Amino acid sequence: MASGEFQPLQGMSDIYAPEIYLWRMIEARARDLFARYGYEELRTPSLEKLSVFKRSIGDTTDVVQKEMYAFEDRGGREIALRPEGTAGTIRHLAGRGAEGLNARVFYIAPMFRCERPQAGRKRQFHQVGVEDTGEPNPLADAECIALQQHLLEEWGLTGSNIQISTRGMPSDRQAVADGLRNALQPYLGELCDDCQRRINENVLRVIDCKNEMCQKIVDRIPSAVDFMSDESRQYLETVIQSLENMGIKADVNPKLVRGLDYYVHTVWEITHDALGAQNAIAGGGRYEIALGKKAIPGVGFAMGMERVITSLEACGITAGQFAPKGGIWLVSLGEEAVAENMKLARELRGKGIRCSMELEAKSMKAQMRKADSAGAEKVIIRGEDEIEKQTLTIKDMGQGTQEEIQLSNLWKILD
Ligand code: HAM
Predict the structure, then answer these.
(1) Domain of residue 354, CATH code
(2) Ligand 1: which atom is nearest the Cα of residue 123?
(3) Are 236 and 265 in contact (CB under 8 A)?
(4) Using one digit for the tens of pLDDT, what is the confidence trace for 160-178?
(5) 27, 139, 233, 264: most buried, per Cβ within 10 A?
(6) How many domains does the chain have?
(7) Cβ of 84 less than 6 Å from ligand 1
(8) Is the CB of 115 under 6 A from ligand 1?
(9) What DSSP designation does 400 have?
């Protein structure tokens, strides 16, 4: 069988030791911090009705139009693998009535986007995210960004940068779209084919276009924020002031357009220099999502865990630092010792001690080599003699010293 047969699908990865220890550190520290901010964990299914994503993320977005794994199930129902966590979270909270309108939840979960794979862009990736529902309040947005910064600190990640902007209120939408369309009119023929379509469909996407010519044109026209109401601009100003008050620096980038339609008011992105073209480790913002009759307002963010890991590694933080170390290795000389050591291993593990052994009586040299490569702190050696005398030899691998002791004294040494 060709080795490719054992690979996961393109754009997807198996995650295993030692890298998994970095993932576990990230998850454990996130859970711990979220609890301090009053967030509860939420686990929603990976599959949702397609309409959940269409109605929240938006029909004309790239995520919905081009990137979703959407299909019909056996009953002909249109379903999709979640491309992000906010839509499913709001679908869940909408079902919880009043409680859902004032909730703080977090998730750590795989997401799926059928994008063209490249460095930093995967088809299955993982997000750690939060959603804080409640009426719009710039201080809630600032607190959410502060939580995100705090999380980066807990992980030990330095060198990231926050860019912030506003999408304005829903009542600004028409003025912004008209203003941008008018400003782009003189350059219509110079825009790329996609943008010629976007200008009518979703003009904000032109601002976001990666095409060099489109970017040059966007640099020449006023920004979306220039067409917004004073109220929207004041809202962003209050968020920035509150961040400053907490000692958090955010750069205003009026060209920041998040590719999801549910945003209102504050939007932000966190980038890291260690990443290439796909340099966003996190995105967030305030939103309003109406899946039922009533729109649910909230604010939240999601961090791309793969990109966080790449950035951590660039900061010199590696999986090896979090791999379990130490513990005891039991060396058995003879079949009887194997059986006795299995009993001893059970006792040691029962007392919370990490402990391993070979389940067959291999040579002493082979067993010692295993103990060494496993990084055991201590090795216990037992043969027929020791078992008869109820003794054991204990070797300190760090110091290279060893002594024979009574089995009954082992617990005193290990305490
Ligand atoms: P997003 O900006 O689409 O926002 O994704 C958040 C983060 O997920 C990105 O900054 C990136 O780190 C990571 N990410 C996205 N796509 C990929 C990919 N194909 N491969 C690897 N990493 C990726 C959201 O998803 C919003 N739901 C965030 C949010 C929560 N807004 C409010 N609440």
Answers:
(1) 3.40.50.800
(2) 19
(3) yes
(4) 999 999 999 999 999 999 9
(5) 264
(6) 2
(7) yes
(8) yes
(9) T
**pLDDT tens digits, one per residue of 277-298:** 778 999 999 999 999 888 999 9
Residue with CA closest to ligand 1 atom 22: 304
Q: Is the CB of 113 under 6 A from ligand 1?
A: yes
**Strand, coil or helix: what is 353?**
coil
129 lines ligand 1 (CB under 6 A): yes
Cβ of residue 141 lying under 6 Å from some atom of ligand 1: no
Q: Tens of pLDDT along 255-268?
A: 998 989 999 999 99
Looking at 270, 293, 320, the residue that finishes a domain is 320
Tokens of 19: 């890298």
**Ligand 1 pocket, residue 125 CB under 6 Å:** yes
Residues 6 or more apart whose Cβ sits within 8 Å of residue 364: 331, 333, 381
Contacts within 8 Å (CB) and 24+ apart, 228-232: 228/166, 228/168, 228/169, 228/172, 228/175, 228/176, 229/168, 229/169, 229/171, 229/172, 229/175, 231/169, 232/166, 232/168, 232/169, 232/172, 232/265
Domain-located, residue 203: no
On whether the pTM is more than 0.90, the answer is yes
**How distant, in Å, are the alpha carbons of 145, 157, 232, 265, 352 from that of 245?**
13, 22, 20, 20, 45
